[in-house]
Amino acid sequence: MKEQNGFTLIETLVYIVLLAIVMGGILMVTYQLVEGTDRTLAKVIEEEEANFILRKIDWALSNVDDINLPVSGSGATLSVDKIGYGSNPIAFDLSGGAFRVSKGGGAPVDLTTSNVAVSSLSFQRVTVPGQPEQIVVTFDLNGQPYSMTRTLRHD
After folding, report:
1. What is the H or E stretch that residue 47 is in?
2. In Å, what is the CA distance from 42 to each residue of 10, 47, 96?
3. Tens digits of per-residue pLDDT, 11-68?
4. Which of 20, 132, 135, 146 has CA 20 to 30 A from 45's CA?
5. Radius of gyration of the chain (CA)
6. Where exactly are the transmembrane stretches of this chain (predicted)?
7. CB distance 104 to 79 below 8 Å
8. Are 138 and 125 in contact (CB under 8 A)?
9. 94 three-class SS
10. Distance in angstroms (rounded) separating the CA atoms of residues 26 and 120
11. pTM score > 0.70 for this model?
């Protein structure tokens, strides 16, 4: 009998199955990495936009001369006049899932991008006798709640 070198059909099939299992595992890990990166990026964008909104409101509520809206209680629009600011009033509102600002009665400008949707915007004016007035801001951004309380100091 001659000695034959090479692989049998069974050995070839076993190697193909092992290769398919390894390749499937590599593809699953790669997919999960890409999916995780997309989720992380979306969360980072959401946090950046929420912080941007909160910083703009905080800026508007510094050196407040007068609060036009809400007059009392709560409302969906905040309108303030700042001391020494030439484009009064500054107004914040919500339209079509976009958080907007307008200055000096001009046309509103979106502060958020199409990457996020804002909902449930509320500005609550809190007045407690003997204490400084406060504005409580709450909103949802892509379903996540955000809030801020700003104590007003009339300088």
Report:
1. helix 9-60
2. 48, 9, 20
3. 999 999 999 999 999 999 999 998 999 999 999 999 999 999 999 999 999 999 999 9
4. 135
5. 29
6. 12-34
7. no
8. no
9. strand
10. 43
11. yes
Q: How many of the other CB atoms lie within 10 Å of CB of 123? A: 23
**DSSP symbol at 96:** T
139: nearest Cα among 131, 147, 129, 150:
147
- Copy the structure tokens of residue 109: 């400008």
Asked if 70 and 77 count as a contact pair (C-beta separation under 8 A), the reply is: yes
Residue type, position 24, single letter: G
Expressed in angstroms, the distance from the first to the final Cα of the chain is 106
Could you identify the residue written with the tokens 């990495």? Answer: 33
Distance from C-alpha of 64 to C-alpha of 150, rounded to nearest angstrom: 11
d(CA 92, CA 114): 18
Helices marked H in 61-145 — which ranges? none
Rounded Cα distance between 97 and 150, Å, is 24
| 1 pLDDT higher than 70 | no
